[in-house]
Design brief:
single chain, 331 residues, alpha/beta, TIM Barrel, two-stranded antiparallel sheet, 11 helices, 12 strands
Amino acid sequence: MPSFPSYRPRRLRRTDSLRRLVRETQLGAAQLVQPLFVRSGRGVRQPVGSMPGVCQTSVDEMVRDARQAERLGMGGVLLFGIPDVKDAVGSSGWDDHGPVQEAVRALKRETPNLVVITDVCMCEYTDHGHCGVLKDGDVDNDATLEVLAKEALSHARAGADVIAPSDMMDGRVSTIREALDGAGFANTPILSYAAKFASGCYGPFREAAESTPQQGDRRGYQMDSANIEEAMREVRMDIEEGADMIMVKPAGPYLDVIQRVKQETGYPVAAYQVSGEYAMIKAAAERRWIDGERVMMESLIGIRRAGADIVITYFAAEAARLMAQTTGAAG
């Protein structure tokens, strides 16, 4: 390539219009998915202390948020349920009239252009806070598969567009795929949390979902943060079992994993910018240590640049509004 002085890279950085013209990585509202926490009741909007701007909501309030997401052109929402009753096996998770199931029906009726993704896991529904059925203090992998399939089927019956198992049990994708196909839901795709790492960034989520383990931790089934080759084995296994899309979680600390998954599989890749990533940016912005909007957008562009096709983020609505304002001003 030519060198200085004939080549001057700054020429194409001189104005905002030039920078937009040659921008390599694009971020649009349609690529953003907003997580929502839904519970029973009416008129409920309960703020999550560690996540400014995030609330637990009843279905009617959640529909208001979803309508806004639809108006902003966002790609979809990811639903988490907070049940009224918890037990050892998480049976509220497959209650056809549970918060998630009622939310799905309302969303498909009121916001038909939004993709409705449902998280399939037991941690919100069990009284011990683990992602499956316990046996002698440990999560029993194979016993958990049965209840995950029940939950997935309940979500599909309600009308979920995408089923997203996040439990990290071995074999759960094939079990859920078989259950969906056998019940007439062969066209319902699975977004697998294939590379979900044990992370210190999940704390605020556990407050929002009321899912903190009552004993021990989840390192026995979530992935070791040091292992990328193991992550690729997990991804390949889930694809072989029938996953239609692959998720990497968290996003920011695992950009290298996102890149490898996209390059080596070619499958649609979702990256989840998790609660701790969101909370850290919000906290620093509140203290005026950083420009919150600028760092928000930089973080989202970084996730896209690494190879993510879909970005699940608590910033989704805020980022979509900002992009709409910027586009309007430019137009």
